[in-house]
């Protein structure tokens, strides 16, 4: 499936949703590309997973910002590969550094740089520990097995939409509750 076909399919998927994330964050190794940076040389020409580039272009066309959160110990190689693939201008933030925090530091920096709330973000990663820790921050997080693809995009947008709807309903309940100051007092105060 060529990049243009994937892009068009991704645009169709994105078009099915009314609520979209303001920022989509990607891991690099085994999420956008099928290797670990530290096992490669800067001289090599990297490649992305087959559907990754089309998805990136579709998100860009829809005006959805994108960022990178990678715990790669070789950020120099990762950044070189991003340049070689002509992807650098696509990302509003690139947080690529080794960390023991399972990417929570990466997301704090992305939030500081962009001002986008965590619950307005969608994240793709291949490691469950990263998915678990970042989800606790309020980010809709999707575990990918064989890189980001159209199925993962559909799943991510579906879960993001469900989380946003749930959050809005909770907000409405809280507003009703907080507008009625007697709602927590016992009714049988005679």
Number of DSSP-assigned strands: 5
What percentage of residues falls in helices of 4 or more residues? 40-55%
Could you say which structural class the secondary elements and strand pairing correspond to?
alpha/beta
Low-confidence stretches: 183-190
Shape: globular
Whole-angstrom Rg: 19 Å
Percent range for β-strand residues: 5-15%
Number of alpha- plus pi-helical segments: 6
Strand ordering within the main sheet: 3-2-1-4-5
> What multimeric state do the chains show?
single chain
How far is the N terminus from the C terminus? Answer: 73 Å
Biggest beta-sheet profile: 5 strands, parallel
Average of pLDDT? 90
Run of helices and strands = HEHEHEHEHEH
Secondary-structure topology with pairs:
Elements: H1 3-15, E1 23-26, H2 52-61, E2 65-70, H3 75-84, E3 91-96, H4 104-114, E4 121-125, H5 128-135, E5 140-143, H6 150-179
Parallel strand pairs: 1-2, 1-4, 2-3, 4-5
């Amino acid at each position: 499936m060529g990049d243009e076909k994937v892009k068009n399919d991704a645009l169709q998927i994105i078009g099915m949703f009314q609520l979209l994330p303001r920022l989509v964050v990607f891991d690099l190794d085994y999420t956008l590309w099928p290797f670990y940076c530290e096992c490669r040389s800067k001289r090599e020409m990297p490649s992305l997973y087959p559907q990754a580039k089309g998805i990136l272009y579709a998100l860009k066309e829809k005006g959805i910002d994108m960022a990178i959160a990678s715990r790669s110990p070789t950020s120099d190689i990762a950044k070189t590969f991003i340049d070689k693939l002509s992807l650098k201008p696509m990302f509003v933030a690139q947080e690529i550094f080794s960390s023991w925090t399972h990417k929570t530091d990466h997301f704090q920096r992305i939030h500081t740089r962009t001002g986008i709330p965590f619950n307005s973000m969608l994240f793709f990663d291949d490691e469950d520990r990263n998915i678990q820790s970042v989800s606790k921050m309020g980010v809709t997080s999707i575990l990918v097995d064989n890189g980001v693809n159209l199925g993962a995009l559909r799943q991510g947008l579906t879960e993001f939409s469900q989380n946003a709807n749930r959050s809005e309903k909770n907000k409405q309940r809280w507003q009703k509750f907080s507008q009625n100051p007697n709602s927590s007092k016992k009714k049988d105060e005679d």
